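User: Design a sequence. Structure:
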């Protein structure tokens, strides 16, 4: 995994946006895997700025979101459908028919999950997957103990994740128990991964994911086996890394052609 540590979350988000923009520019019909939560917000803001000011064109891009809460309609203010519209999609020009987010209201969860996987395959696979990380090491909503070979399916959220996400709801009890999430195996098939982590609450999960053993108890740790994975961190999220100085040194000594 390539570890990129930046002084601030906003500096790291600008790098993430540049990497995504570079892909969209070179492959206008690319397939992007998108994430929700607080972490990718500044990346989306920068992409929206690039769309408005530099003409970054998403009209041929296809998107697949990682996850959705079971039981929340697309109009629900805490649904990930709503999140994506508010924070990214309604501000850019992705064609509505190329936007894919699991339907949390489906009456046939297994059927929907199978179709989601088939749609990803039919689109040619995901070129770049944007990821946050849970304070428990989850990616998507693949909670600790998730199979590292899992596919899109229903999951039950841990109490920790429900508490972490309670800030978006009027009470913790309102956070749904279940979600539909791409599996760890689904994420591992994407061609490139950008893992973003900001703030001290993510330091332990990041240290385990980057330097710990590969274990289902920290699903992000499987990214050690991904051929093209970058972790973009701010200083507080990087504090528990043992080889911190080495990662900085590697980044500072990149050849010019590799710079973002
Ligand atoms: P956050 O969530 O960006 O809101 O911290 C990350 C995640 O749970 O993957």
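Assistant: Done.
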């Amino acid at each position: 995994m390539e570890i990129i540590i930046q002084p601030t979350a906003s500096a790291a988000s600008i790098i993430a946006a540049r990497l995504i923009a570079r892909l969209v520019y070179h492959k206008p019909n690319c397939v992007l895997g998108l994430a929700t939560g607080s972490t990718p917000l500044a990346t989306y803001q920068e992409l929206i700025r690039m769309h408005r000011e530099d003409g970054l064109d998403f009209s041929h891009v296809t998107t697949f979101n990682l996850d959705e809460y079971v039981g929340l309609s697309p109009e629900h203010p805490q649904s990930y459908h709503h999140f994506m519209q508010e924070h990214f999609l309604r501000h850019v020009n992705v064609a509505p028919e190329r936007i894919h987010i699991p339907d949390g209201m489906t009456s046939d969860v297994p059927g929907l999950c199978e179709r989601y996987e088939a749609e990803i395959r039919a689109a040619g696979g995901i070129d770049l997957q944007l990821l946050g990380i849970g304070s428990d090491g989850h990616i998507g909503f693949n909670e600790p103990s998730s199979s590292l070979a899992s596919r899109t399916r229903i999951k039950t959220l841990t109490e920790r994740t429900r508490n972490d996400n309670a800030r978006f709801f009027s009470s913790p009890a309102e956070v749904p128990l279940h979600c539909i999430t791409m599996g760890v195996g689904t994420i591992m098939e994407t061609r490139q991964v950008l893992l973003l982590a900001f703030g001290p609450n993510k330091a332990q999960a990041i240290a385990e994911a980057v330097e710990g053993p590969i274990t289902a108890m920290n699903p992000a740790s499987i990214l050690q086996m991904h051929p093209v994975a970058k972790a973009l961190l701010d200083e507080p999220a990087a504090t528990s890394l043992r080889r911190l100085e080495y990662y900085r040194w590697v980044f500072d000594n990149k050849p010019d052609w590799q710079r973002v």
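The chain has a mean pLDDT of 97. The two ends are 16 Å apart (CA to CA).
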